[in-house]
């Protein structure tokens, strides 16, 4: 740890590197979490940078709001916005960034992110502290889940602390990654309630509008959405569906609309920018979420902040997110979802609903990015007290995962770090100046 980092640490300030394959211009819950957490940490006096892979022609260093510095590394995407898990090809450039920016804590995000795990392992071999935030739930039965869980277990062997966004997520992570429970904290996501404000004047009083904003993938229950539309539209002529988002399951919704002749009551908006989501939400009376698995659903909180009644499947950590008077929970099947929608529609017709502006106030009270930031700071302060382990003890920890060849990978990464140190010494790397805004 160099002089600049030691000075910041003495002042109670941290130098943090957020690492993930998922960041802007890509949109989603992980991207929004990293962005908002980084801005709030900067606002509280910490230094934060982000490492992610390139997006199209967006390669190199970019500066975002409040001087947030983002390194878009020249790494090819392998599958579903994730880099190829080589473990060794990016050692030199990651080491250079971590030294140049005087990083003391590496904070990885998302179990799907290969880059987050690679940067965390490299940081740990360099003697830095590591934190990992898990945003998802996984099963245990299918082959993809087994492989992902084992990979996550290997990568988290030496992680100083883990953060989950719900208590259900914590239980899931402890079981599948075999992380000790005392090393896992629960810190939920948050929503900027000042950006997601109600506007009842945008609603059409002649119809009950159901809004869906989601990635159109299997995990989000698009098959359930298609079945619900096919059942309800013929029976309720005053219902309108507005669907925002894109994905591999878009064809299914298009097929249902065209075959059934629902062009007048089903609107498909396609991909939306995050800045456009609020303008879509305020047009609706009900927000529908049909996720099959979810650690924490930010979309339903954004919808509640805009004053919509929320109907959601009762899966994962969703029951923890909103109080009973702001959400209708349903089992992940068509009949249960339709019953919950019908109850919500009757409540709207009878005037039994919470004032939209009161909903916004409630969300503002329950969820705040500054509160999330303060709780994350406690984790950062705690892990700085941990002692760094020598390579031998680190290898012993990795051995506990039961995958012996992974020790060879970690050993090779360590040897390559030593080789890079000899070729391009730490003392020859210029320390980046902090951008003051």
TrEMBL record:
Entry annotated with the keyword Metal-binding: no
Family annotation (CDD domains): GT4_PIG-A-like
Signal sequence segment: none
Keywords in alphabetical order: Glycosyltransferase, GPI-anchor biosynthesis, Membrane, Transferase, Transmembrane, Transmembrane helix
E.C. numbers: 2.4.1.198
Entry GO terms, CC: glycosylphosphatidylinositol-N-acetylglucosaminyltransferase (GPI-GnT) complex
Metabolic or biological pathway, per its Swiss-Prot or TrEMBL entry: Glycolipid biosynthesis; glycosylphosphatidylinositol-anchor biosynthesis
Annotated GO biological process: GPI anchor biosynthetic process
Molecular function terms, GO-annotated: phosphatidylinositol N-acetylglucosaminyltransferase activity
Pfam families cross-referenced by the UniProt entry: Glyco_trans_1_4, PIGA
Annotated ranges, domain PIGA GPI anchor biosynthesis: 53-142
InterPro entries named among the record's database cross-references: PIG-A/GPI3, PIGA_GPI_anchor_biosynthesis
Top-level EC class: transferase
Transmembrane segments: 397-417
Protein name: phosphatidylinositol N-acetylglucosaminyltransferase
Organism field: Pieris brassicae
